């Protein structure tokens, strides 16, 4: 890949912690030794709604530490946005697996055999988000005049689309150790994405001053959003036990507990009503989206925000109305998961676009070409697209590279189908979010180079490596001269959470500015010469919003994101007429990401996110029975294995964003937006009218058949093949 | 029990039903072998027992008595697969990596694509979509003379059958 004179950026340098990861030397939480350690266990509710009536300990409690809500010195909340979720239930129970009591003991066997009996007074649970009387958040986006838009339409197409829960399924379950310090302070080590989220939650829970709480991220075995807010809960639990016992306490979930108790992707019901002219131009886009938030608010308000901003897809239309709400149900709280609302809403809009094309008898590529956003067009929030808008380019490139039109004709009437999806994803926090975060990053001069001080976490995506490349490039120094400090709140400034496709574009940009100032301060001096002459040098910078950006939180109009990445997926699926399994047999994607700082790592994000998206589309079904996940094990909740994953063809384009580091936009989340609608559109091409994911064999079998006798003909064609 | 771990003979006093995974991590101090599920589904705990890849969370200590066990530490950082997994994106978060590499070792030299697909079906990776893992294994069994000097070079798309293409052409400004 051409790097236009860049020495570090754009090259596949060796990842910073790579050697440790392949030799077994990398230390994850459960690998770290702590002297005098107690093991911990969480006692959880077994009912979805009601009150605690009685708690009995049917075991000898000698040697056990037992903590309930009365042991909380500060406020009994998991501090996040709404502060509605207790760290430990007091009386009211809102979901199965709600934490009530904490036990600790030296001996794991005794801990696991301790029998706690809890009696409840049950009340009637709510499982349907659409009819739930409790709404966490409503948001509306209005552009133009929707009635005028419908008046201009020749045809109106309506549809309802549903998506299920999805479990993040990082391979390392949630894990923390809390260590009480001599002066009443608390240190927590753990697997997490956002050390400062945990820090704030502990300050509130423990009632300690900020400087008495220290949070240190340990090597983290995947997050995908699942370790964005949940670690605040488990860290609080371990800290309460550590405070009570005065000893280090380890809390590591097993797989079943991690699946039953922790956050998942919000299920959704999304309705579209679209006005369109006979030749395929969108005149009115009316969308209603309902997210199932689960029992507590967690991040539902911001998931909803990103969801509805992306709900009309990468398309232009003058008259748009998008209404969304996140509602409470008596199921474990849903939360962050890669994509954060956008995979749900873009699933709906991309399947709906396919149906519009079918209704009009138009080619699906042509319909998307007609309506795709171009530079100068505005989104639903009125954001004007700049030169970094690449919707048409990725669409045309994907169609060309896969021979989409030719294959679509060739596969007609067979058991195979081919489908595509066009999508986009905003980088960074939504609206005014980055202003509120006011993230900081620091760069410290060392004898031989510089050390990066950020709270951004390495969770597999390559944060340390990519940040070091940006800094090395801006300083003009070798990549190896840049070190990266651990994400330790006692040492690093608050760079904001490691979420929202912001770690490269937002934090990377702040680091670039730090490096530019360091370069200027050093002038012709070497690091060693500077340190001898002037003493230590630490450069700290804060996020600065590009001056042309504006956002109004009341009207939900303005520049929702600094920039967007653009993607187009093409999937071929094969439907087995005996088992009704739909298998992806070919996958190809074109992504435009501004600048690939490390092409191999960027491609890794796209490959991995695409595979997760294929799982979301076809395999990953959370079965909720009476408010409890009924298939909470890796045996029964299926994520893609090697055998379920087709070869993944990735093409990256670079169309720089002027405020991103070396032009980079975000890349982490976008890849999971596209696979599900492309899979369902491929199923539509094969004759199956599926509108809900995951498209399990049961759903494919039950799906209405499209185009009358076509399915019969296909059946015949397979029969002939078998005979032949 | 007596067994050989990474070439060293060990004698341990452990419960015969203790999981080999725990024996390795707790009694042998080898924390490179990871637990992802504890039910034999994810393969993060894969080790070699007499050369065969097994899920160590499903093997009781008694079954390992008298065998030769190899863990990720036993490769001593010198196996070509280890370097290749760093250089070609086979390791992201790294938690599945030790098990994945041990399962890949068991595939032998120059496995076919199909042998990799089938042979690694018991090892879950949530980060990579497996593509980079295949790439890493193919590179490790291919041009080993180039090991170690690939740093600071761009993707060499002409030299390989990598499925990834990167183009830095500016996108046309035409509407």
Protein described:
- The complex is a heterodimer of chains A (724) and B (175).
- Chain A is α+β, with helices and mostly antiparallel strands.
- The longest helix of chain A has 20 residues, at 503-522.
- The model of chain A is unreliable at 708-724 (pLDDT under 50).
- By secondary structure, chain B is an alpha+beta fold.
- Chain B folds into 2 domains: 2-75, Ubiquitin-like (UB roll) (Roll), CATH 3.10.20; 80-144, Orthogonal Bundle (DNA polymerase, domain 1).
- Chain B has 6 helices and 6 strands.
- In chain B, strand 3 (46-49) and strand 4 (52-55) form a beta hairpin.
- Chain B is globular and about 40 Å long.
- At the A-B interface, helix 1, helix 16 and strand 27 of A face helix 3, helix 4, helix 5 and strand 6 of B.
- Strand 27 (648-653) of chain A pairs parallel with strand 6 (164-167) of chain B, so a sheet runs across the interface.
Brief digest:
Chain A is an alpha+beta fold and 724 residues long.
Q: For the record, what CATH class of the largest domain in chain A applies? A: Alpha Beta
- Shape descriptor of chain A reads globular
What is the helix content of chain B?
Answer: 25-40%
Compute the gyration radius of chain A: what is it? Answer: 26 Å
Mean pLDDT of chain A: 96
The pair of chains with the biggest contact is: A-B, 82 and 72 residues
* pLDDT < 50 runs, ≥5 residues of chain B: 143-164, 166-175
Structural class of chain B: alpha+beta
Helix content of chain A: 25-40%
**How many strands, what sense, and barrel or not for the largest sheet of chain A?**
7 strands, mixed
Tally of strands of chain B: 6
Give the second-level CATH assignment, the architecture of the largest domain in chain A: 2-Layer Sandwich
Total domains of chain A, how many? 3
Our Rg estimate of chain B from Cα atoms comes to: 19 Å
Instruction: Strand order, main sheet of chain B: write it out.
Output: 2-1-5-3-4
**What count of domains describes the coordinates of chain B?**
2
Strand line-up in the sheet with most strands of chain A: 3-5-1-12-9-10-11
Biggest beta sheet summary of chain B: 5 strands, mixed
User: What low-confidence regions of chain A span 5 or more consecutive residues with pLDDT below 50?
Assistant: 708-724
Principal-axes geometry of chain B comes out as globular
User: Number of helical segments of chain B?
Assistant: 6
């Amino acid at each position: 890949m051409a790097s236009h004179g860049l020495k570090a950026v754009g090259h596949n340098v060796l990842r910073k912690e790579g050697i440790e990861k392949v030799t077994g030397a990398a230390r994850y939480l459960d690998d770290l030794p702590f002297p005098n350690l107690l093991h911990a266990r969480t006692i959880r509710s077994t009912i979805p709604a009601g009150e605690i009536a009685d708690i009995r300990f049917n075991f000898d409690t000698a040697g056990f530490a037992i903590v309930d809500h009365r042991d909380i010195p500060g406020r009994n909340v998991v501090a996040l946005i709404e502060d509605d979720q207790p760290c430990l239930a007091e009386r009211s129970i809102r979901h199965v697996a709600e934490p009530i009591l904490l036990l600790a003991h030296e001996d794991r066997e005794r801990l696991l055999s301790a029998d706690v009996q809890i009696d409840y007074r049950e009340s009637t649970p709510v499982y349907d988000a659409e009819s739930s009387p409790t709404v966490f958040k409503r948001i509306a986006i209005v552009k133009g005049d929707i009635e005028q838009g419908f008046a201009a339409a020749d045809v109106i197409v309506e549809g309802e689309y549903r998506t299920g829960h999805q479990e993040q399924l990082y391979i390392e379950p949630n894990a923390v150790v809390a260590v009480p310090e001599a002066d009443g302070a608390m240190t927590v080590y753990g697997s997490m994405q956002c050390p400062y989220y945990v820090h704030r939650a502990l300050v509130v829970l423990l009632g300690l001053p900020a400087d008495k709480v220290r949070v240190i991220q340990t090597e983290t075995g995947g997050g995908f959003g699942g370790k964005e807010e949940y670690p605040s809960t488990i860290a609080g639990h371990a800290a309460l036990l550590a405070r009570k016992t005065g000893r280090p306490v380890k809390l590591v979930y097993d797989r079943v507990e991690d699946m039953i108790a922790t956050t998942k992707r919000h299920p959704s019901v999304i309705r579209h009503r679209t006005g369109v002219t006979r030749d395929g131009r969108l005149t009115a886009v009316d969308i209603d989206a309902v997210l199932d938030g689960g029992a507590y608010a967690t991040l539902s308000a911001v998931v909803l925000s990103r969801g509805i901003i992306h709900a009309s897809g990468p398309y232009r239309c003058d008259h748009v109305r998008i209404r969304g709400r996140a509602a409470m149900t008596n199921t474990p709280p849903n939360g962050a998961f890669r994509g954060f609302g956008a995979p749900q809403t873009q699933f709906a809009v991309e399947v709906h676009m396919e149906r519009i094309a079918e209704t009009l008898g138009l080619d699906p590529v042509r319909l998307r070409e007609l309506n795709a956003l171009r530079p100068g067009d505005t989104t639903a929030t009125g954001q004007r697209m700049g030169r970094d808008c690449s919707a048409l380019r990725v669409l045309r490139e994907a169609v060309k590279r896969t021979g989409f039109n030719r294959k679509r004709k060739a596969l007609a009437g067979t058991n195979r189908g081919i489908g595509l999806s066009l999508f986009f994803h905003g980088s960074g926090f939504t609206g005014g979010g980055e202003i509120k975060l006011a993230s900081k990053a620091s760069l410290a001069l060392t004898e031989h180079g510089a050390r990066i001080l950020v709270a951004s976490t390495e969770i597999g995506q390559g944060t340390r490596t990519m940040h070091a490349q940006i800094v090395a490039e801006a300083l003009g120094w070798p990549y190896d001269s840049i070190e990266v400090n651990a994400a330790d709140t006692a040492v690093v400034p608050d760079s904001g959470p490691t979420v929202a496709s912001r770690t490269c574009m937002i934090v990377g940009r702040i680091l670039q500015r730090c490096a530019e100032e360091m370069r200027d301060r050093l002038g012709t001096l070497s690091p060693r010469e500077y340190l001898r002459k002037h003493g230590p040098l630490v450069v700290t910078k804060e996020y600065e919003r590009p001056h042309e950006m504006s956002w109004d939180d009341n009207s939900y109009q303005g520049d929702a994101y600094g920039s967007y990445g653009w993607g187009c997926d093409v999937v071929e699926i094969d439907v087995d007429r005996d088992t009704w399994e739909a298998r992806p047999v070919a996958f190809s994607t074109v992504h435009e990401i501004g600048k690939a700082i490390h092409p191999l790592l960027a491609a890794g994000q796209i490959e991995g996110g695409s595979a997760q998206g294929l799982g979301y589309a076809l395999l990953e079904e959370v079965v909720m029975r009476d408010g409890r996940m009924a298939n909470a094990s890796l045996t029964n909740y299926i994520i893609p294995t090697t055998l379920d994953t087709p070869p993944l063809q990735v093409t990256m384009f670079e169309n720089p964003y002027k405020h991103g580091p070396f032009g980079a936009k975000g890349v982490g989340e976008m890849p999971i937006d596209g696979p599900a609608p492309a899979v369902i559109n491929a199923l539509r091409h094969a004759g199956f009218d599926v509108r809900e994911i995951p498209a399990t064999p049961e759903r494919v079998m039950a799906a209405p058949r499209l185009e009358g006798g076509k399915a019969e003909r296909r059946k015949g064609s397979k029969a002939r093949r078998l005979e032949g | 029990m007596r067994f050989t771990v990474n070439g060293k003979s060990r004698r341990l006093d452990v419960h015969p039903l203790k999981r080999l995974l725990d024996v390795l991590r707790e009694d042998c101090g080898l924390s490179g072998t990871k637990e992802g599920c504890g039910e034999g589904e994810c393969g993060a705990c894969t080790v070699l027992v007499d050369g065969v890849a097994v899920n160590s969370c499903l093997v009781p200590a008694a079954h390992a008595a008298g065998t030769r066990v190899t863990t990720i530490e036993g490769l001593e950082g010198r196996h070509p697969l280890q370097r290749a997994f760093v250089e070609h994106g086979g390791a992201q978060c790294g938690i599945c990596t030790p098990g994945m590499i041990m399962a890949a070792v068991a595939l032998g030299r120059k496995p076919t694509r199909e042998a990799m697909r089938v042979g690694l079906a018991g090892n879950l990776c949530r980060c990579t979509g497996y593509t980079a893992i295949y790439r890493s294994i193919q590179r490790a069994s291919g041009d080993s003379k180039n090991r170690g000097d690939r740093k600071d070079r761009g993707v060499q798309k002409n030299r390989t059958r990598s499925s990834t293409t990167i183009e830095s052409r500016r996108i046309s400004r035409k509407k």
